[in-house]
Design goal:
With 319 residues, the chain is an all-alpha fold. Helix content is 76%, strand content 1%. Residues 27-54 form a coiled coil.
Amino acid sequence: MLDNAEKEFNIDKSRGMRYGLLPQRFAEEKGDKIKGLNQQAQKYEGNLNAFHESEKHSKIALEVQKEIVHQEFSEIYSEYSHVTEEYNTLITDLKHEYVQEYLKTDVKHEQIEEFENPELFKHYTSERANDIELKKDWEDNQHSLLIANRSVAKWSKEYSGIYSSGSTRDKIYDTRLKLEIAKYQVNQRENEKGVLNGRVNESLSSKYQNQPSTLIEQTPTKLKARLLELHLENRSTGVLSKDLKLVEKDLAREGKDISHLYDKEFVQAGANIGGIAKLFDNLGNQSHDRDKDYDKIKRKSKSKMKERTLGKNNELEME
């Protein structure tokens, strides 16, 4: 923030007041502010390092606990010791339940239905566990982004009022600092959203392998998150265009409009979903056109094979 203050000060010295810095003592007051920020930063870094250290130990403890669960389970159900699914949380929790049941009742099941039935086992795969984590990360990011944007709006309004009312320079500086921090947090959350968007693209591309990745990438991020939910709820048809239509119906039932989609929150609206209908039609048409092209290629391929077969038969007849 202070770098921007200096840039504006060099353009017009009176602009230093926008940051609560007296033009006549700009360099001196800027230096004092930097010292104060450095002191706060040192305290913050100390707390952050302590948090990261605690988080590191927690993760190690969790991994050790997971390993113990899998070992205990393998001792009881050795025939299923090969079922690991990358030691994800879902499979670990399931094994823990069976271990605890055995310890309490001393009863061992002849077979574990979740591992024998493919329809049940799909609820414990590493793919599903990753999708659940991705959905949570997405929701957390959206919530944080919403709060950060509201903070920017709040401090922007407060800063404008304080500056225009001729408040004290300390008050102007403190409020401007809070505004810049809020803007920084928005930028951080937006960067995180970009990373999450890439993870969602990767997950959906593996689920809709018959669709070009560009089609998935063109789908608004908010809708991609809803597609991910369809798979977690076992409602997906496996066809992108059909799943998008399901999402459209869900949004209509919820009374939400994405005609002016923005990834902070859905805007409550009435029954007008003309914009989203057009969006789905465009995506659906692209998918349909691709299917038509594929059918055309198959017909041409069959036709060429038939021509080659007829040619060979004619050669045999001539011989």
